[in-house]
Amino acid sequence: MVFRSDLTAKNSYAANVDIKNNIVKLIKFVDGTGYEIATYNNDGKLDLQPNTDYHLKVEAQGDITKVYLNNKLVIDTKDQTYKEGNFGLNVWDTTAFFNEVKVKLKHKDE
User: Would 64 be classed as within a structural domain?
Assistant: First the structure.
């Protein structure tokens, strides 16, 4: 899931469920190059499986980004590089299906 992206998606954040490497990632893209900001694998006990539905949720307010996997908070970090931008979906080196995609924008005073 890409968020706070410029129009080219070369400068953005992305939350990623990486089944091949059994990890959830928060990535920052700068000029098209990705840098992992935070990762989660439950100390090696995460058991991501192919052909399985996962619920991925991202909350970004100010410089705080929270990533949830199946309603469990798995990443909670700060980065102030990008404060606004576009939303999108991404797939890397796999096939994915997306359903029930929702975007909710909050005002600064909420």
Answer: yes
